[in-house]
Structure prediction request, 147 residues.
Amino acid sequence: MATSTERPRPMRAWAVLVVAWGVALVSTLGALFLGEVMGMTPCLLCWYQRIFMFPLALILGMAAFAEDRRGAIYAMPLALGGAAMAGYHSALIAGWVPKWWVPCGTGPSCSEQRLEVLGGIQIPWLSLVAFIAVVILLFGYLRKTRS
Prediction:
């Protein structure tokens, strides 16, 4: 009878990965709803944040249901890059970045967001919270499943 040298992963670690996937999935669906249903054209920085978030929903979903730690490792750079982009966009909205340092050209303005949800919360701030939540959850998951 062969014994397994692999340590069984606790159920709590898997649940953390599922929650990270849930955050990424809700964020992705929210961005699609704003763009496709409400007809809001995203600014350039919002597009970059989407580029980081959309693959997270796929990667973390596959990692959660396959219970594959590598998916969390692959997702971490995307989550960190998205958090950096959302942090810059949030600083731009808050007025902490000079107006001349705005990367947007034609299309919607990156610095003048008009949509507020939940009583005054800007969309880039929600994006920042989502990316930070995913980073924290992935960090916790990777620490719990370290061999």
Remarks:
- The first helix runs from residue 11 to 37.
- The two ends are 24 Å apart (CA to CA).
